[in-house]
């Protein structure tokens, strides 16, 4: 099947990393760009976390990435993450779930995830809390906000965030770390920047109301195509996949969150 123009362009922009040297080079490039973006906004780059996103990447390439220094991986699909963590159980790595979660997967997340970055409903919060209580452990969470106002995206509408945060202390095993968003997929940088700026504003407003509800107030935002803009707007965590691992052969549509069809759990990283 011939490649689409977009996938061919992605391959040129994001060459596939296969060796330890490849991964080390890509990681260094991403970190250099994070540092440059942080410098432009007067921020300390060492306070910005780089979360490698390994969706669709085979276990052996994740193993190679770990040899290059990756100590955590973000995954969109719970089943994929569980399969990979079992295959790589001998490695000292953490697993972050960053895609939309259905309640029937709460038990799996509670069993092995180090964090969940896409909390956007009280029923999921309740299911996670119940499973975590039974397991005797807690879980770091980010509340996902739909800052692009796109119907296809998961996440809370911005005006529902204050009431949602106020309810979360009921679930004592959930440790709120901050907020997460997915910017609009657009070449218009101003539109992308507006999504990130809005998340920062929402975080700041929540702090003014009750700083305890927002935890340390982290901002997880920015992916391979826009993480530098996200850093300029205050990101404390950027979720980067293709710029580290290389362009995905899988069409973006399989991972774009389509609420009406249930297909996909997060956009390209």
Automatic annotation (TrEMBL):
The keyword rRNA-binding does not apply. Residues 60-248 form the Alanine racemase N-terminal domain. Signal peptide: none annotated. Keywords: Pyridoxal phosphate. Pfam families: Ala_racemase_N. Gene3D superfamilies: Alanine racemase (3.20.20.10). The modification N6-(pyridoxal phosphate)lysine is found at residue 55. The keyword Acetylation does not apply. It comes from the Bacteria. Belongs to the pyridoxal phosphate-binding protein YggS/PROSC family. Pyridoxal 5'-phosphate (PLP)-binding protein, which is involved in PLP homeostasis. PANTHER family: PROLINE SYNTHETASE CO-TRANSCRIBED BACTERIAL HOMOLOG PROTEIN, PYRIDOXAL PHOSPHATE HOMEOSTASIS PROTEIN. This is Pyridoxal phosphate homeostasis protein. It comes from Nocardiopsis alba.
């Amino acid at each position: 099947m011939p490649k689409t123009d977009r996938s061919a362009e992605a391959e040129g922009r994001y060459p596939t990393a296969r060796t330890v040297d490849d991964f080390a080079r890509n990681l260094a490039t991403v970190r250099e760009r994070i540092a440059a973006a942080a410098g432009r906004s007067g921020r300390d780059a060492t306070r910005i976390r780089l979360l490698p996103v390994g969706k669709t990447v085979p276990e052996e390439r994740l193993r190679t990435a770990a040899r290059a220094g990756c100590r955590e991986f973000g995954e969109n699909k719970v089943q994929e993450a569980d399969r990979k963590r079992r295959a790589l159980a001998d490695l000292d790595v953490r697993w972050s779930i960053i895609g939309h979660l259905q309640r029937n997967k709460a038990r799996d997340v509670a069993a092995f995830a180090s964090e969940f970055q896409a909390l956007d409903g009280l029923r999921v919060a309740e299911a996670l809390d119940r499973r975590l209580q039974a397991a005797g452990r807690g879980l770091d969470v980010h509340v996902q906000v739909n800052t692009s106002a796109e119907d296809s995206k998961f996440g809370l509408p911005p005006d529902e965030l204050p009431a949602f945060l106020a309810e979360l202390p009921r679930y004592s095993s959930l440790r709120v770390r901050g907020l997460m968003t997915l910017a609009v997929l657009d070449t218009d940088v101003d539109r992308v920047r507006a999504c990130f700026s809005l998340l920062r504003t929402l975080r700041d407003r929540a702090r003014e109301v009750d700083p305890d509800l927002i935890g340390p107030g982290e901002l997880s935002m920015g992916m391979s195509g826009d993480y530098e803009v996200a850093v300029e707007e205050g990101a404390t965590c950027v979720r980067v996949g293709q710029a580290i691992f290389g362009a995905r052969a899988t069409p973006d549509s399989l991972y774009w969150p389509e609420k009406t069809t249930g297909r996909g759990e997060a956009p390209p990283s």
